[in-house]
Each structure stands twice: as C-alpha cells, then as structure tokens.
Specification:
The complex is a heterodimer of chains A (about 450) and B (about 260). Chain A has about 450 residues and is of the alpha/beta class. Chain A has 13 helices and 13 strands. In chain A, a hairpin with a 6-residue loop joins strand 10 and strand 11. The chains are: A alpha/beta (about 450), B mainly beta (about 260).
Chain lengths: ~450, ~260
C-alpha cells in the first residue's frame, strides 16, 4: 500500500509523541547526483542529559529550538558519547576515532599528530568553508586555532551564559552575509551551556535550610526514579560520587530538586540560542540546503544515582541527544529506539552527507543507511571510555558492562529490565555466562583499537 | 589559587569579598546619564589576586529626554581570547512608560579579529520597531514579526525601566523579555522582594531589591538605589557592577586573556 506524505507525517508525528519505534520500510528517499553539496550545521552542546528535550517527552522544561530539529529529523535514543568527559569526547567526535586512538583520554591532553580533524578533512577533501565557534578543549578550553576551521570568536574562556550569545550573533551574521553561490559551509557551533551547571554547583554545595526564590518552589521537578545508589557499586564509582559537590555535603531532597530545576533552566538557555540560530538560518538563502546535526559531548548526572556532572558510565552521563535533520532526504519527526549509535558516527555520517570519502580509519560508521532508508544498523555494541580507573563501558543491545582499571569490581546491567541501572548483576551466578561474554567482547574491542605506539595504553 | 565561595552571590558576599568599589551616584530619575558597568564573574571560584572582573564593558547612555520618549545608546564590549572582541551597539528610542517600552531601535553586532580588524562576514545590523502589539524586525531587508500581548522590554532597556514607575511596584509585574532584540522569552515576572541597606561612600543607602524569573533564564536579581540607579544585576555567578571607570578593568582583562 502506498504511503502518502500526509500518512507519513501523521505516523511520524504520532511516533515522535509516543516514542514509537522507527518504521524503516516507510521511507524511500530519492537522491540527486546533480544537487549541490549541502551545507552542514553541527550544533554541539556541553553536558546535556539526553532526556531534556520537550518534544521527546521531557515535561520539566521547554525547548522550542531543539524541538524544531527533532520535529524535522531523526532522533536517536540509544545514543552514547565516546567518553563522558569533555576533552576526550570532543577529540573523538572531531576525528571519528575513539579517544584512546587520538591520544586524548582525559582533559588537558594533546592529540597525537597526523590524525585528520573534521575541519581539515572537509576543507581539503570537500572544498567546504569551515567555521568553528565555541568550546574546543583539545586541549585548550577555547582557542582561536582549531584544526581546519576559521574561528571568528572563540569566547573568553569563561561560562556559556556569557559566550554563547556571541556565537549566535556570529552565526546569524554569517547566514546573512555568506552567499549561497559560494562553497558549501560546515559550521560547528559548540555551545558551552548547559555546562554552567558546574558553576552553579560550586555556589550551592552546601545544603540550604530554606530554598531561595519562593516563587519557584512549586515548580521544582521531582527526584528521578533511580535517585538511590545501586546495590553493589565499585569503590571507584563511590569515590567519584564523593569527590564532587552534592551528596557529600548533605543535600536534602529539596536541594536535589532545586539543582534539577536549575539544570533545566540551563538547558533552556542554550535552547534559546539554538532557536535564534534556526530562525536566522530559515530567514537566509541557505535554508533549503543545510543539514542540521545536533548532539552533546556528554550527559549530566541530574541527580540520578545521586550523581552530579559527568565522568562516570551510568546512562545519565554516557547517553547524549543525537538528531539528524535533512528534510527531503531523511524522514522527519522520527524517533529511533533500536539502533545503538555513538558520537564517533557523526564524522563518517557527515562525509556521506557531503559525498566525500572518509579518512582511512574511523572508529564509527556512517548512519546514512538507517537515516535515509531505515535500515537497521546491525551493530552489536558501542563503547565509551575514560582514562585509567574511571572505567570503560561496553553497551550491547540488552546489557551494559563496565570495567575498571584498578578495581576488580565490574558492573553489568540489564538495560531492558532495569533501564535505571539499579541492580548490578555482575556478581549474580545466573548472569555469569553473560558477564563472560561481555568480557570477551570488551577484550576483543580493546585489541581492535588502533592505538598509536606513542599513546600509553592504560587499560 | 581559587576559593570556592560555597554560597550564591549577593550584596553581602560581594561586600565581604571587597570585590567592588562604590561609584559616585549623582544621576536622578529623568536626568540624562551614562552609567557604566563591568562584568564580574566567579567561575571556578574567587581568586585573591587578579580576579576576573571587567570581562565585559557596558555603557548605557540615557539622553534626549522628552515628554513622551527618551533615547538609550548601548555600547557593549565582550573580551575574547587572542584579542577577539565582540562589540554590540544599539540606539533605542523608548517610551516614557512603566516599562520604558522600546519603540524603535537599531542594533549592530560586529567582531574584530586577532589584529583588531573588523570581520565583515560576521557583522550584523538589525532594525526594529514596535507598534500595536507587534514587533517588526528587519535584518538585511528581510522582515520578521513577533506578536506580543502585554508589556515587554529588552535586557538593554530593563535598567531604564527601573528608573520609571517600576520602582513603585510592590508585588509582581508580568512582562515579556526580548533578549538582545533577538529572542522573545515570554511570560517573565519581575518581583519586588524588599529593601536592603548598604554602606556606600560612607553613607548608608537604601536599596530596592527585585527578582526576575521566567522560562529560559536562571533568576536575575537587581539592586537599585532609591534614585533609580541599577547598582548590581546578578545572574548566577555573573554580576554587572556599576563603576566609575570600567574601561580600565576591561582592558586589563583583555590583556590578561591574551597573555595566557
């Protein structure tokens, strides 16, 4: 039976609202070899929890900007970052390789020489005009020198609340002034929000007897379902919890709820910038030939597992939003729950979008088949890593396995029965064969990594 | 060496840090005036030496005061690493009403590069006007409309509003917030939250305290003198501070950034 566009829109919009499964057989998108290379707008936020998009079901905030991208694109819900730490993740996303393969496994580390970065590749192989704004952190927090990119304004190295608006102004101006007859552009806007929540935490570490701002008291979101700490947890994870602000200083439930409220406002702040960029793009000559990709470097604890910030492998930190919008080429208003995807997939997918070859080695893969034609990705697992003893994560379709460098304890969660990761199954005899299977997968994955000899192999 | 302050910034914590030197305040409501501010932040804590102050410089001139309107000229500079700078200038005609409602405006946003040269590709000019509940904006000949039901103001005109009838507000005032004349954030509330007293140039001065809430914002807090001058605007860990000569702080900060 033929599917009309009206049927399609109704189905996908309903799917978006209900979070339905991707229906790949519905779509068959024509391609045109004569079409000009598309522009690419890559919007990358900092520290955004995956469940912070109102169009995808979060009711504690309003995100009209990101909603617009989701309503015109494909959103992945099984989307993981290659590292839940800023620098390693950014080094990874911008090279398409795992952090250890780039030599950046912690903040402040410099990537090894000779690996092509996204800007260099698109400029050299695709003839793209490449523009970068915002946080870099590989290793400098912000820099006027990002490989292969022009940087009109890198910011002052301070918080997103002050810099993000400047990036937006620059993007708005570029859309107005850059002729559509020139080379295609790749613009990467790396907003710093909602990372400012880290600063908010520094000012609110001590629990309060009375919460400030009485008018917001009835707006505080509830505690998350998985607020409590898992039954069996490695010491290194407990230490991670204690080394950061929050639980160690005796917050009350209301303190936690106030922090959650503040975090959602931070997300709304960056969403407002995104809305401005989208409005400017729509008003420009580039509106019909620009692909939009939206993601974040890592997530945010947001009180789940009594965690704040990042650098651990529970889903709150390791999952990130990932949306691709290319109206006319990709389906719209679709939520893909089935495919395991990763931040390392962004670069190879961009190469496909631009019609240019990928660099010789990439850890990720192009998502074009699933985006364009709805083909299942046929991927068994994705991984995420942090330096040394903070752990390495391997996520299969049903389970998540986490191992630590200096701690024999392991974690195994059944992500279908226990998506909140509250029951560590690693010590339960009936899961021993699954544990062994995941150990093997992990070891094989480690052995498959192309880690240059100059990089210290730390796990 | 940075000290985590462990408590939200407010009037008392600023005074205890000696982070601010009191300016001369001699302007009165309805007089021409050019208050200047610099932005003080406490990212990663407070530094005893070379704390980050003056990262932005903000000058707001109120002039051409007539029966029903007055003019505002905004000059905002944002310091960037490697001598990048972002410069926003705006000329605004405001109505002399409760909210100093903007009637028409021109805004110019420009960036300068590491050689202090303007980058035309990143220069943007916006014009706008408001009439009968509709904001009309023009960018490069293209028009955009925003429908506004009720009172509205922009972040550039909000301080001017304090100098009008808002000072008489004793409870909450609803408004819409047109941030940087670029993004309309609806359903905001400005709430009068009491009076405080501080020592200013050897005198005890009464300050009016306002809070601003709404979607898309962390709460803002404003401390206003009884003569209508905005002393501090606090938003999380960022504070605009009234100062007699903020330009020197700004230049110091720019130099410090570029020596990193």
């Amino acid at each position: 039976m033929k599917t009309t566009r009206r049927d399609f829109i109704q189905k996908t919009t309903a799917g978006l609202a209900a979070g339905s499964l991707y229906a790949p057989q519905l779509f068959s998108i024509a391609t045109s070899k004569t079409r000009k290379k598309p522009n690419i707008l890559f919007i990358f936020t900092d520290q955004q929890h995956i469940d912070t998009i109102s169009a995808l079901g979060c009711s504690y905030l309003k995100t009209p900007g990101i909603d617009e991208i989701a309503e015109r694109g494909v959103s992945f819900t099984q989307s993981y970052c290659p590292s839940p730490v800023c620098g390693p993740c950014r080094a990874s996303v911008y090279t398409g390789r795992m952090p250890s393969e780039v030599g950046v496994t912690d903040n402040g580390e410099k990537p090894i020489d000779g690996i092509p970065f996204m800007g260099e590749w698109f400029r050299e192989k695709g003839g793209y005009e490449t523009i970068y704004m915002g946080k870099w952190h590989v290793p400098a927090y912000v820099s006027s020198r990002v490989p292969g990119f022009d940087v009109p304004f890198c910011g002052h190295g301070g918080p997103g609340a002050l810099s993000d608006s400047s990036y937006t102004f620059a993007a708005e101006a570029f859309f107005e002034n850059y002729s559509s007859g020139q080379n295609p552009f790749l613009m990467a806007i790396n907003y710093m929000q909602p990372h400012d929540i880290c600063e908010w935490l520094r000012f609110n570490r001590k629990g309060k007897r009375d919460l400030p701002f009485e008018p917001i008291h009835d707006q505080l979101p509830p505690l998350p379902d998985n607020f409590l700490i898992p039954n069996i947890e490695p010491e290194l994870v407990k230490l991670r919890r204690l080394e950061w602000e929050g639980v160690n200083t005796g917050w009350s439930d209301n303190d936690w709820r106030y922090y959650r409220w503040a975090y959602y406002r931070h997300v709304e702040m960056v969403d407002a910038e995104i809305k401005r960029v989208l409005d400017a793009l729509k008003a420009s000559a580039h509106r019909d030939n620009t692909v939009i990709i939206f993601s974040s470097d890592h997530g945010e604890g947001l009180g789940h597992h009594k965690m704040v910030r990042k650098a651990f492998h529970y889903d709150e930190a390791s999952k990130v939003p990932l949306i691709f919008s290319w109206p006319g080429r990709y389906p719209e208003a679709v939520v893909n729950h089935q495919d395991l995807v990763s931040g390392v997939d962004i670069f190879p997918t961009m190469c496909d979008i631009a019609g240019i070859a990928q660099p010789s080695h990439m850890s990720g893969r192009s998502l074009t088949p699933t985006l364009s034609d709805g083909e299942p990705l046929q991927r068994d697992f994705v991984t995420s890593e942090i330096e040394e003893n903070r752990g390495q994560m391997l996520r299969t379709r049903q389970f998540k396995y986490i191992t630590y460098y200096e701690d024999e304890a392991e974690q195994l969660f059944d992500m279908q029965d226990d998506p909140g990761e509250t029951q560590n199954l690693a010590t339960e005899p009936k899961y021993y064969s699954i544990l062994k299977q995941h150990r093997t997968l992990f070891r094989d994955w480690v052995n498959s990594l192309k880690i240059p000899s100059v990089v210290k192999h730390r796990w | 060496m940075r000290t985590i302050l462990d408590q939200p910034l407010d009037l008392r914590s600023l005074q205890s840090l000696e982070a601010w030197s009191a300016p001369h305040i001699d302007s009165k409501i309805n007089d021409p005036a050019t208050p200047r501010y610099y932005l003080w932040i406490a990212q990663h804590g407070y530094r005893e030496i070379d704390h980050e102050m003056g990262i932005f410089s903000y000058k707001r001139s109120r002039e051409n005061i007539e029966n029903s309107t007055f003019s505002l000229r905004i000059d905002l500079k944002r310091a960037g690493i490697a001598y990048h700078q972002h410069h926003i200038e705006a000329d605004i005609t405001c109505e002399r009403d409760l909210f100093s409602t903007p009637l028409d405006w021109e805004l110019k946003s420009a960036f300068s590069n590491t050689s202090d040269q303007r980058m035309p590709l990143y220069t943007l000019n916006k014009k706008g006007a408001y009439k009968n509940g509709i904001i009309n904006e023009t960018v490069s000949g293209r028009n955009r409309q925003y429908h506004v039901k009720g009172d509205w103001l922009s972040d550039y005109t909000l301080p001017a509003s304090f100098q009008g009838a808002l000072l008489k507000a004793s409870d909450s005032v609803p408004f819409h917030y047109f941030q940087e004349f670029s993004l309309l954030k609806k359903s905001q509330t400005l709430r009068y939250a009491g009076r405080e007293r501080i020592s200013l140039n050897g005198e005890t001065v009464g300050l009016l305290y306002f809070q601003h809430f709404g979607a898309g914002n962390l709460p803002y807090e404003y401390w206003i003198t009884e003569s209508g001058v905005l002393l501090f605007a606090v938003n999380a860990f960022n504070i605009w501070m009234l100062h007699d000569a903020p330009e020197a702080h700004y230049q110091n900060h720019l130099n410090r950034l570029n020596n990193r």
